[in-house]
Write a structure and sequence with these properties.
By secondary structure, the protein is mainly α. The chain has a domain of about 110 residues. Helices cover about 50% and strands about 5% of the residues. A two-stranded antiparallel sheet has the order 1-4. A two-stranded antiparallel sheet has the order 2-3. Helix 1 runs antiparallel to helix 3, helix 1 packs antiparallel against helix 5 and helix 4 packs antiparallel against helix 5. The protein is elongated, with a radius of gyration of 35 Å.
């Protein structure tokens, strides 16, 4: 049984999980998580991650391509994360970015890459059944035995070359130029 596994859908799910985990990590300063820092953006990012996971689950359940609304969700998450990494909210003004922001950025970058892969219909096919053993067929065995029992044909004697009818005064082929020839200019 062959099963088609869409690489893009798997990467979207991985990026969405990374985005969800990043919301609980420190984004700015020493103790500012996304839930502490953002007012609405944290809920929007969580909604984007959950929506992406639902879209992947629908695609896997129906054995179809990702829903048509999934790229919009990924784009919204990408815009939100990039805007918060570039311009932090007022509660974190002047603070440095920490692991949560970078994990979120990596997660949405992975989701964006996966959306491009899904749009290009790149997938991986996995064969989940065991390999069958080769069966011997009597007809093939007989042909192999007959070929082994038959002696090879005798070698053919070379035919003598026809007498030369070339006229040296007329056309002759040019010999190749030898780079080591001293008479060459």
């Amino acid at each position: 049984m062959r099963q088609r596994i869409d690489l893009g859908a798997g990467l979207i799910a991985l990026g969405a999980i990374a985005l969800l985990v990043s919301l609980f990590l420190h984004w700015y300063g020493s103790d500012l998580t996304a839930w502490d820092t953002f007012e609405i953006v944290d809920w929007a990012l969580a909604a984007c991650a959950v929506a992406a996971l639902v879209g992947v689950a629908l695609a896997l359940r129906d054995a179809a391509s990702a829903p048509s609304w999934l790229p919009a969700v990924v784009l919204a998450a990408l815009v939100l994360v990039v805007s918060q990494v570039i311009d932090p909210p007022p509660a974190a003004h002047g603070e440095s970015r920490h692991a949560g922001a970078w994990v979120a950025l990596g997660g949405v970058a992975l989701m964006a890459l996966a959306t491009a892969l899904a749009a290009a219909s790149i997938s991986v096919t996995v064969d989940v059944r065991g390999r069958e053993r080769r069966r011997r067929v009597a007809a093939v065995d007989r042909r192999e035995a007959a070929a082994a029992a038959t002696p090879p044909p005798p070698p053919v004697a070379p035919r003598p070359a026809p007498p030369s009818t070339r006229d040296p005064e007329r056309t002759e082929t040019l010999r190749p130029i030898d780079p080591s020839d001293p008479g060459r200019e």
